[in-house]
Amino acid sequence: MGKGVSLVLAGVLAAGALVSPDAARGSAAVGDHVLFWGDVLKDAYRVSGGAPGPLARAGAMMHLAVYQASAGVPGRLGPINRNVAIDEAAHGVLTAVFNRTDYPTFSLDLRARYDVARAEAGADPDGWAAAYGRLQADTVVRARADDGWNDTTPYTPGTEPGAWRETNDALCVPGKAVTPNWGRVRPFELTDVASVVPAFPDGVRTYSQLLGNERYQARVTEVYQYGGAAPTGPADPPTLRAEDQTRIAWFWANDVNGTYKPPGHMLELTEAVSRVRGLGQAANALLFAEVAVALADASIASWHAKYLTPIDLWRPVDAVAVAYPGANWRPLSATSDNRTFSPCFPAWVSGHASFAGAWEGIMTKWFGENVDFTATTDDPHAKDQERVFHNFRDAALENALSRLYLGVHYRFDAGDGLDLGRAVADRVHGAVTALPAPVEHRVAPGTAVRTCPGATCAAVVTVDQLGAAGWSFCKKWGREADGWWYDVDVYWRGGKFVGWVPDDRTNLRHSYLGKCVY
Asked: Which residues, in sequence order, are bridge partners of residue 307?
């Protein structure tokens, strides 16, 4: 079992006492462009729905591009408007990720949000900041294009007792295992995913060992007692879950579409702490990049545990059916119209707990353990509720144990998920600042520059044919042998053409560019 989760059930009840909201929540002011785009990201989560892994990946991509646009502008190349660079980076990533092919019903007007941000961003007379921000977006999108996010290799559930199978409820029907290949996605910062995945409790490696394990049997009994839906008739088993434990279960759920899902919840709490501590835009850019990358890598590692280890653990609803035949037990977890369901992927480890541990780890490294903050939620069963916390560990622990109270996880799913997330945070913290130095490129007149209005390069022009002062345009600059070209904006500035071009020594994970003087 994970460290820190061996408390009795009542031991965390005081950690997040329910409070009444004083006022309706509002979105972040455009004054901080990092927070503004963070709110846009959460709205994108709400309208797109789906599994938490792809959403966490989108958040890491956006916040990495935003951080690079904010912090990566080489100072010796002159000042630029960082607000504009951030707007272009965020908008570029979001429009690339939430495209109509992959998200055909995506309804959020990203252009309208972009227009709001740019209206308050200030001047960018040369288009220099916009070019830099767009290039950061393009670099991140290209870097993640082949990371395995769209692997649809089929998954065949197990049939022996203990092995996960679809629970055949409101949201989990046969053939619908959710993102079974997510554990194979290339991480952002982790170099060895398996190194952060704990061993299954008590060294269990087979389902026969699982069913005979005393700890497992005790945890099935526990979730039976504390995680069931309230009885609606004499045949339904009673629940020992306290009233506040029920509130905890719903507060942290955010499982259904229309919410910002677990990654969005962690980003929402990050914003709450940022506001309490009065962070500025530059600090927010780095903080959110670290949190978002930790969440993304935690999603990959936790899905590795779920699908790529010896035990693909069945959900409590199936375990209880075997341990308590005829009990008519159902988990508390339900859709907004109260149809019972269990998340459609294996139980161990808990994704919520993994996200919580990763978030706790990054936040503690930034602020220390003890910070007072108020948490909110999107879950329809906890509408307008808030909970007050005094440290990050209590919030993370409550989040993890909420899954037991909701009836969809065992206690060791929570503990091991927390440990996994904290291990991810240890590896992510400080890593996103390890960036290459800028390089100045000099290109002689007559150098060929290909124009690529679409996916195919259509023409070749030379630098001395680029045109006159007062306008800018997009060219493609890159290595034709590699099959791709960079977008590069070229401008007339100070009596010469200047533009952003890639440093060939820079990999596609970060693109820190130098000034090209023609």
From this structure: none
- The pLDDT tens digits for 3-27 are 332 222 223 333 333 332 222 233 4
Encoded amino acid at 363, one letter: M
The backbone torsions φ and ψ at residue 92, rounded to the nearest 5 degrees and listed phi first, read -65, -45
Structure tokens at 191: 């170099």
CATH tag, 9-155+168-431: 1.10.606.20
What are the extents of the domains in the chain? 9-155+168-431, 442-517
pLDDT tens across 411-463, in order? Answer: 999 999 999 999 999 999 999 875 444 333 344 444 444 433 333 333 333 33
For residue 273, CA distances in Å to 64, 372, 418, 431, 472 come to 20, 8, 20, 22, 41
C-alpha R_g of the chain: 25
Burial of 471 (0-12, 13-18, 19+ CB in 10 A): exposed
Q: How far apart are CA 412 and CA 426, in angstroms?
A: 21
Q: 10 Å Cβ neighbour count for 460?
A: 10
CA–CA distance, 280 with 259 (Å, rounded to integer): 27
pLDDT of 99-154, one tens digit each? 999 999 999 999 999 999 999 999 987 677 887 788 788 888 888 999 999 999 99
pTM value is 0.83
Phi then psi for residue 18, to 5 deg, are -70, 140
